[in-house]
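hey m, so remember when u said the tokens were messed up on ur end? i reran from scratch. heres the input so u can diff it against urs
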Amino acid sequence: MKTNFPETTGFSGQFIVGNRKDPLSINAQLMGSFVLKRAYKIMGDSLVPDDAPVELRTQDEVSEDTGLPITFTTFENDMAVYKPKADLVVRGFYSSGEHCDVYVTENGGARDLWFHRNNIPADLTFGDDTTPDLDALENMFGWQQRQIGNRHLNGTITTTPPDPSDEDLSNVTFNYTSFDNLFFNFYRRDFAIGGFPKTEFLPGSLIEIHRGAEIVSFSLGSEQVSAKLFIYDGKSPDKKRYWCAKNVTDVRLDTLIVSPQENTAYVLWRGTWDFESYPTDRYRMLDVKVEELS
């Protein structure tokens, strides 16, 4: 299948296929997905698109041998096939003794507290209360490690390859009776407030990151991302003007990674659909577009 992504410098996109748990059953559901990434510079209270080329992160970065009983992911890849909720990471910017908060205000609506930590000693240990939580020691709000809670597979991998130890899970089959789709989300559960985060970041949302009295705030861009699939019907001439155009209806800005100390950020839009809605040999083109709204 041909894929068209925005050619503007600063965007990067990729089409992927993978399994999630069918929300209506206990079975696996094969999903088609695209990921679109854009990088920004934080300038004052705005995000300014970065004209430098941006690459999708296809592999995790993990800690070197620390002598601890677990391996820490220090930067997770961008390639989740699906996310039921939005992910937010504030890299670095941690200061012991300072309370930390992230507020999100959507389009002039309610100012919601999405993440909070008090920086108590329990925040800085992992699992057994004795192993240092290297992520919490480094990042204000970092990555939920895959060894914890609904990110722990608990032996639910039923087939290999690939070897699950390499954490390349794109082609792994799961026992979906016990699998939770929140596995695909990496936001820190222990610092999330109530029902937050929501399922997406809306265009123009105000993001406020508080470290004690220090505040970093900016508004997200107003870009609107849309996508169409072009499907051959199997009867008409196999030419573009005869292909059936189908909208990808589930397109969300579901990931925001902020690096305040570097004054940079990037976002990910993700579009998903039931890949088996159409025969595999009928897919002809995925066309992803971005409209820059004022």
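this time it looks ok to me. The chain has one domain: 2-291. if urs says something different then somethings off w ur setup not the seq
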